[in-house]
């Protein structure tokens, strides 16, 4: 009976689907275990073999936990809103919903083929109205909440209104906008409804504000920082500029300290925690107000070194700072305007990363030192960011390297005075940035003090004169929540006199309307500006035609949509109760599942998804909807499976003449010589002669070398790996059908010795990220078809530790495929099942229980690669022992089940069992089978091992010596001599000396 993976895998995948084998219950008495993969976006490219790595690992854990008696929730769904689908819609005219559904169908087909134990009955899609209805509801809750610093949590906005009605806002300790005007209870009660609404917007957890955003004109939308790479959009590589827009924002900054403290309570990698700590960026220092000369305006700064205030030499504002246009003098206006315009074309990330370039412009304005009253020139510089701190810094060149470099770069120019030194240290070569080892000098009442005492003293004095106070600051900024896109969640918001109004939750969802175009409107409005039925009838409580807008009962709806992270910031809770129409999840379901026990996904989401998810979870906990403070107990970041790209090296003419050779392919050494030497004259003579002959057809110059250098370029060209065999040879028959490689087929090939025809081109392999754009993608469908899903699963785990990057090598698949066939042959021969009821030997028990112990420990420690090695060892041992015993082979089938579930199911069924092996208890290691009763001793003579002997571990030293001395091999080795000494260490060595 042979092992046919195709029939077996199809059979059991059908069985699991029909019997809902992996459906989890919300009412089980079993302990719960919730294992989750990061929300996938269903791209049109489908899965490559790198994508399932984390899914296979989580599936092994999910299956193992079921075996161990847990009620396991292992769901899957799709983060199906997003920019890629919208861009495809713009290019093709297809509705994003159509292409998204097609992509999901492809993903589902591929996922099913690999045999994951997902509870598909709980599938969610963020682009379905029955899902984003609840995302809209959460947005409304955020709008109707404020953050009370006294209770350190979010509360209903009604509690804030109650305080205003009784006390005004003087005693309110809230996270809110800066510089809110104070008012009394009587004033509040006398305000109009509109005035009250405007004030409340300054306190709400989601609010409208004019914000500096990353605007991508080509895409017509705002981009998050993590959607920008090297100053251009990640999607399409389009320029991004900084621009002020009125946007919805979320006060994630209110949760900065809790987000920091929560990291100490969760089992995440230290690298991810450190990324979040750095992103949150806690700093302790002081806020200082500098008055502007001849003005009533202030420049507020936050500094971690208030002790250095007497060393302030100049001030720097972010080019986007609102004061720049107000304080710039006429003489400096042209230079400042030009600099501001240039800076707008650089992303914040680019500006932060560029530590080498020094640039700035003097505004012509001066601030006043709080204590000396000396004038301080005010500059603008792109190393200061409007959204970080206050968008202004007090520059102390003697104590800060960047300020030091800036001051020296502009030394002697208008507005840049000499550097002031306030340390009893030399700063002639560099700034002194240490917080110790100095005494302050030239610092008035701080003279003689160090960092700690100086900081304490200056804060006291700043508070006395009303120009500063101690403060803790965070780098974390409020998250912009608006996107000028079509394919996203609509806001449940309409506008009355320009003020946002929330639609009552009972009328949700507000469904995304149909539009004719997915681009912004001609007058620059977001794509929803193209919708003709996009107004809110506040009487009928329904969406109606725009033509009916009268701003009396029918009002315009919000035209922006929510960002991609909206739906993914709470999705794990929806899985707990995926079909609840009234709530995002019931209180009972939330109480039972609590949060995710194991979360597996990429580390690239450290400061995006993972931070926003924690923020929303904490908010929902504050408002009584989520049961826990943190969403994900344990997080594992799987490493990347790298692709093996295939390259040919090409020397190509630039002449375009029909008589010229289009391309000559080079071997690796010739290519390296060319690119390293930078000249074609170092090419071997035969190649030079070949090119020279071709050039002579159309090159009149006698200097052939000059012609060659001028008319040829050399480059590396990627070949789709699907056309390359394991010997690195290109399949030219298949390649010839691909238009991308038309030129290559007419090329000659230089193999290092001579120019030959291209009937056998050898490619060079390089390991890099697996990507469709690099032509190095391996399709998991092909592996499943050729070798089986169980082989794919085992091989991906076998490649190396889960959290490390590792290269894919299809050649290694055959070894794992052979292992499964060897496993099968333990149970079957050509005539069928050969399993017996014979009692196993002690060695068979030992092999099995050694494997039980190893696999159990490995899964619990997420060391899946070493389990596969142990399976191979065990099967080899049992095959050598010709083991056919049911008492060994039944537990072995269960052991293999989490890794290779299809073959395990078939083995379990063929052994005569009903139902799925996934419900059977996992084997338990019995240590008694691992206790060694015998030891194979090496027997040495004068330190050289001559033979081995197996002896009982119960023997005493005299008994061991008696047996060894009587052994024929010892007698022969001694040849009549008596050893001077016999050294015996029980359980370790036997050595006869002399």
From TrEMBL:
Keyword Aminoacyl-tRNA synthetase (UniProt): yes
Methionyl/Valyl/Leucyl/Isoleucyl-tRNA synthetase anticodon-binding domain boundaries: 844-956
Keyword annotations of the record: Aminoacyl-tRNA synthetase, ATP-binding, Cytoplasm, Ligase, Nucleotide-binding, Protein biosynthesis
One MF term in the entry's GO annotations: ligase activity
EC number: 6.1.1.4
Sequence ranges assigned to domain Leucyl-tRNA synthetase editing in this UniProt record: 277-463
Catalytic activity: tRNA(Leu) + L-leucine + ATP = L-leucyl-tRNA(Leu) + AMP + diphosphate
InterPro entries: aa-tRNA-synth_I_CS, aa-tRNA-synth_Ia, Leu-tRNA-ligase, Leu_tRNA-synth_edit, M/V/L/I-tRNA-synth_anticd-bd, Rossmann-like_a/b/a_fold, tRNAsynth_Ia_anticodon-bd, Val/Leu/Ile-tRNA-synth_edit
Chain residues that bind ATP: 772
Pfam families tied to this protein: Anticodon_1, tRNA-synt_1, tRNA-synt_1_2
Domain Aminoacyl-tRNA synthetase class Ia, chain residue ranges per copy: 11-144, 761-795
Motif 'KMSKS' region in this chain: 769-773
Compartments reported by the entry: Cytoplasm
Similarity field: Belongs to the class-I aminoacyl-tRNA synthetase family.
Full protein name: Leucine--tRNA ligase
Species the sequence originates in: Flavobacterium cheonanense
């Amino acid at each position: 009976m042979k092992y046919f993976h195709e029939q077996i895998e199809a059979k059991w995948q059908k069985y699991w689907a029909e019997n809902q084998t992996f459906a989890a219950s919300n009412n089980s008495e079993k302990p719960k275990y919730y294992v989750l993969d990061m929300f996938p976006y269903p791209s049109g490219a489908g899965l490559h073999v790198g994508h399932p790595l984390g899914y296979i690992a989580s599936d092994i854990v999910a299956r193992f936990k079921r075996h161990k008696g847990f009620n396991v929730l292992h769901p899957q769904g799709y983060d199906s809103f997003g920019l890629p689908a919208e861009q495809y819609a713009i290019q093709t005219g297809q509705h994003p919903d159509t292409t998204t559904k097609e992509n999901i169908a492809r993903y589902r087909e591929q996922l099913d083929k690999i045999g994951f134990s997902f509870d598909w009955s709980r599938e969610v899609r963020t682009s379905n109205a029955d899902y984003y209805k609840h995302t809209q509801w959460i947005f409304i809750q955020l709008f109707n909440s404020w953050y009370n610093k006294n209770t350190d949590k979010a509360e209903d906005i009604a509690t804030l209104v109650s305080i205003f009605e009784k006390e005004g806002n003087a005693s309110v300790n809230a996270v809110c906008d800066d510089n809110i005007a104070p008012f009394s209870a009587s004033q509040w009660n006398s305000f109009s409804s509109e005035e009250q609404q405007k004030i409340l917007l300054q306190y709400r957890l989601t609010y409208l504000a004019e914000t500096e955003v990353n605007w991508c004109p080509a895409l017509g939308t705002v981009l998050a920082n993590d959607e920008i790479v090297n100053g251009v959009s990640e999607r399409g590589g389009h320029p991004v500029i900084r621009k002020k827009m009125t946007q919805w924002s979320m006060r994630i900054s209110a949760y900065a300290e809790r987000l920091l403290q929560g990291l100490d309570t969760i089992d995440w990698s230290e690298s991810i925690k450190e990324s979040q700590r750095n992103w949150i960026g806690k700093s302790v220092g002081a806020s200082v107000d500098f008055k502007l000369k001849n003005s009533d305006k202030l420049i507020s700064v936050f500094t971690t070194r208030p002790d250095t205030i007497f060393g302030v030499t100049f001030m720097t504002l972010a080019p986007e700072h609102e004061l720049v246009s107000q304080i710039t003098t006429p003489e400096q206006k042209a230079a400042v305007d030009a600099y501001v315009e240039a800076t707008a074309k650089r992303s914040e990330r680019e500006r932060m990363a560029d530590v080498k370039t020094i640039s700035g412009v003097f505004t012509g304005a001066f601030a006043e030192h709080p204590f000396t009253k000396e004038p301080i020139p005010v500059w603008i510089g792109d190393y200061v960011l409007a959204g970080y701190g206050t968008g202004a810094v007090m520059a102390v060149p003697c104590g800060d390297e960047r300020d030091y470099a800036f001051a020296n770069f502009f030394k002697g120019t208008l507005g840049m005075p000499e550097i002031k030194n306030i340390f009893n240290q030399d700063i002639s070569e560099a700034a002194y940035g240490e917080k110790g080892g100095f005494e302050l000098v030239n610092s008035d009442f701080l003279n003689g003090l160090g960092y700690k005492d100086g900081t304490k003293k200056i804060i006291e004095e700043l508070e006395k004169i009303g120009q500063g106070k101690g403060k803790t600051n965070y780098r974390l900024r409020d998250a912009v929540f608006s996107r000028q896109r079509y394919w996203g969640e609509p806001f449940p918001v309409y506008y009355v006199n320009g003020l946002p109004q929330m639609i009552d939750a009972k009328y949700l969802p507000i469904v995304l309307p149909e539009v004719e175009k997915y681009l912004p409107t001609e007058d620059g409005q977001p794509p929803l500006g193209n919708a003709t039925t996009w107004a809110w009838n506040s009487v009928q409580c329904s969406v109606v035609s725009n033509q009916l807008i009268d701003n009396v009962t029918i009002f315009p709806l919000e035209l922006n949509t929510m960002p991609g992270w909206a739906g993914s910031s709470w999705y794990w809770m929806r899985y707990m109760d995926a079909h609840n129409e009234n709530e995002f999840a019931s209180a009972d379901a939330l109480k039972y599942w609590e949060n995710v026990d194991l979360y597996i996904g990429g580390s690239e989401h450290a400061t995006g998804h993972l931070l926003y998810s924690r923020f929303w979870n904490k908010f929902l906990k504050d408002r009584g909807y989520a049961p826990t403070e943190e969403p994900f107990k344990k997080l594992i970041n799987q490493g990347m499976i790298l692709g093996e790209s295939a390259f040919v090296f090409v020397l190509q003419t630039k002449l375009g003449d029909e008589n010229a050779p289009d391309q000559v392919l080079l071997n690796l050494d010739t290519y390296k010589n060319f690119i390293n030497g930078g000249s074609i004259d170092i090419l071997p003579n035969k190649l030079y002669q070949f090119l020279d002959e071709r050039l002579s057809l159309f090159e009149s110059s006698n200097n052939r070398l000059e012609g060659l250098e001028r008319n040829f370029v050399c480059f590396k060209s990627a070949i789709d790996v699907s056309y390359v065999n394991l010997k690195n040879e290109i399949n030219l028959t298949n390649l010839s059908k691909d238009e991308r490689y038309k030129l290559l087929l007419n090329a000659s090939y230089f193999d290092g010795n001579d120019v030959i025809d291209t009937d056998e081109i050898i490619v060079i392999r390089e390991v890099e990220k697996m990507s469709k754009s690099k032509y190095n993608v391996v399709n998991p469908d092909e592996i499943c078809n050729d070798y089986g899903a169980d082989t794919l699963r085992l091989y991906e785990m076998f490649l190396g530790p889960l959290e490390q990057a590792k290269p894919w090598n299809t050649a290694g698949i055959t070894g794992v495929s052979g292992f499964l066939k060897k496993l099968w042959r333990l149970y079957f021969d050509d005539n069928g099942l050969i399993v017996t009821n014979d009692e196993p030997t002690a060695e068979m028990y030992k092999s099995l229980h050694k494997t039980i112990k190893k696999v159990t420990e490995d899964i619990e420690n997420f060391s899946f690669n070493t389990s596969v090695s142990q399976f191979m060892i065990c099967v080899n041992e049992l095959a050598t022992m010709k083991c056919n015993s049911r008492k060994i082979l039944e537990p072995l089938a269960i052991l293999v089940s989490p890794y290779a579930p299809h073959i395990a199911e078939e083995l379990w069924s063929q052994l005569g069992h009903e139902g799925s092996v996934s419900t059977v208890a996992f084997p338990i290691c019995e240590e008694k089978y691992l206790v060694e009763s015998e030891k194979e001793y090496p027997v040495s003579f004068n330190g050289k091992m001559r033979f081995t002997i197996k002896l009982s571990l119960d023997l005493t030293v005299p008994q061991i010596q008696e047996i060894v001395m009587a052994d024929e091999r010892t007698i022969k080795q001694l040849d009549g001599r008596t050893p001077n000494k016999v050294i015996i260490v029980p359980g370790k060595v036997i050595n006869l000396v002399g």
